[in-house]
Predict the structure.
Amino acid sequence: MAEIPKTLIATSDPLSICNGFALFPKLGAFRSGYVGTNMANTIFSVNDENLLLFRLSANAKYEVIFGLCGPAYAVEMELEGSTGNGSIELAVAGDEIQAGVLFGFTLSFVLGIQLDTMKFNWVWDGWNSNLEPSWSQLLNFHVNLEVDVIEFIYECIKKGFEAKDEETTFKKVAHISNQLIASWGMYDERKGNFVSNGGEMVATPTLNIPIDITPMIEPLAAFNVTLKPLFSRLSFGPLIGIQIPVTVKMKSVTLDYTKYSNLAFAAGKVSGTTTGADPGDASTINVELEHTAGFDISFGLFCNLNLVKLFNIGFSTTWPLLKTLGIEPKLGPYANNKSNTVGKTTAKACRECGSGSPAIFDVIFEPPGGFAI
Amino acid sequence: MMRRRDFIKLMGGALGAVALTSCGNSGNSDEAPIAPIPNGYTFYKVLSSGDALPGGNTLGAIPGTVMLNNANEVHFYGIDQTSTNGFYELLMDFNGSRPVVAQKRKVVREGDVLKDSKVVTQVNMADTNRHGSFAATVLTDDKLTGLYLEREKKGLEPVAGFLTPLPGGGGKFGANFGDLDLHDNDDILIVSHFAPSDTIQGYQGLFYLPGGEVNQQGRIVTSTRDQIPGTDSSPTGIGLVDMHDNGNYVMQIYGSNANQIQQTTDMSGANMNAIAPSMLMGGNVKNTFSRALKSSSPALKTLGKSVFFADVPVGAIKYGPRIGASNNAAFVIHVNDNHQVLYYSGKQVVGVGSVTPLGNVIASLSAPVVGSDGLLYYQASTDKGLELMVYNGPELRTILSKDDLVDGSVLRSFFHGFLPDQVDSSGRLVLTGDFEDGSTSIIIGIPI
């Protein structure tokens, strides 16, 4: 019989997805900065478009910088118990899992619109008197902005998660890339239900909110104010979709070199058995976790300009990133191990967990039919 | 020598404006007429800039957004002396010698507090029907847009907004509502982005909401998840829509992906314009399989699909399409940047470069309006100013033109066709006009 004093098993302290287990370990630095050449384009460009009494010139372009940290999960729990007669029993306390991504979505947007209206003037010239049409400028608007899209839709995203009655956390986090204006975290956080859930933690952070952000970005809102007298409107917004279902299970506990498996969970405790020798007063405890994951991500934009119900031009594009880049995430299961010195109640950030330190990387996505590493 | 038309114009100076329809013959004379064209129209000013608005404000400007329903109501978007925008309603009395405004009412104005306690920031799209109901997409102080409906003059009530479950379930509305159309029984056709529950990708859909409610009877008519009929690609957006009371609809759709952005070039080969390919699609809201393309895009041709669209015009759809009875669609095709052609019921009516019944060369066309009797109204800009014309197949006639007199004032320019509902079932027209004296008025034309 040996006692195991309270020991913290954690991917980092405090928990951070960027120091967690990569959901797709063989993808390595999947949480990478991404600057895609396909993510810059013309939305529309019309010059001197003749619309009865109006003449419209409008140009709109965009560029998107997208950064990602994750998808990953971070986990922590305090274990305390004893071993003896080929078995182990550990009380589990303070268990918490976070699963999701940290990301940023910086948008550069250039918009120029000039609207002229035709006026007819009577030119007096005796028998040759005639009407001469001329153009008079009604509207001339230019805007060049760079915004953190998420900042503007933050409240809407929060409402979306509240409506789903899910435990997804969405908040601003430390920068994952200097190229981004800001970084955001979207993850599910589950606390204190690890044992009651049979040693399994499930998180399903999902985001899918098509939203017009023109009322939220001052220059674009101002543009729509100028369009009001024409009963016209510009609408523009991101199409962001992220889904990261992940299930984490505890598979085994190892004290020094003795592995306990056949784990059972009841009454706030985890217990297991071993055919190996009793380790006695062990110095190291290791917990083997196993996760399966799904992941899909989609980014896009829409833009629409209408003049009353007379005229409308629209555009939208989406980048189903995984499909476009030929990525086929393998769902697992993947095994992960986290160890600590028995009795230690602090933990270092897990550099070896596969998530690494947040930084801009080149894209390292899984090519079709094989892995990049 | 004074022509008969000129004489009538002068008479109109004293008696409102009576415009005799010009004796045009530009139509296809071998056809049976859809309906006879009236002998003429009398045009009257019914409300002008400077007139009082309900609530003690004064009408400053009317941008051209004016509608007429079959309940003798004019709805218009007006700007008051404080530059605040609002929708107003005029109940018309057509029983006398001239139309009279019997009652004015504010429908909704920026700053109003709605029944859901939100404050109106901007009215984006609006429509009315023969019951006098009024539907609008409204931007509110929470910076979100929602769909609202007023029944029996009892104020706007929310119908759908951000995160409202879709009719029939399966997802939620996003926060971008587009064009809408309100019809009999308060049935609403609305374009909106939505988030399906079975995928992470957001889409844009055309939703049919019978009775103006989001419930199990409603449905997604079509969306950017569907394929463009006859092709293997999906639209990426939905623009302006129009629906007839029988459920037939037409709508603008945009091309399949960013790589299909059409670019035109000038003589030197430099890119001039870049715009997503646009097409016209039609169908019936009660029959999902009725979807069909009514115009095609050169971008679709490049996909080798032209065989499917040999019998529909090719070009861009930039104007709002319109639809009448018998599924007769009216729409303008932008063949190129400078050439527009008006189609109605599958036939070419007129194009840029054509000559109007008054002998003027058309430089540009507006979106058309289809009357309940099938008459087609459209406005053209010519080298001599504006003309409003009516077409019934065999005949094409001008019914209003620049310099016509309306209630004694010389008409400088006018706007008709900005909205589909600008003709009522009695053939009365509503439009806005700018006059030589600097005033702007809502004008009603009554057939004689």
In short: Chain B touches chain A through 78 residues (CB under 8 Å).
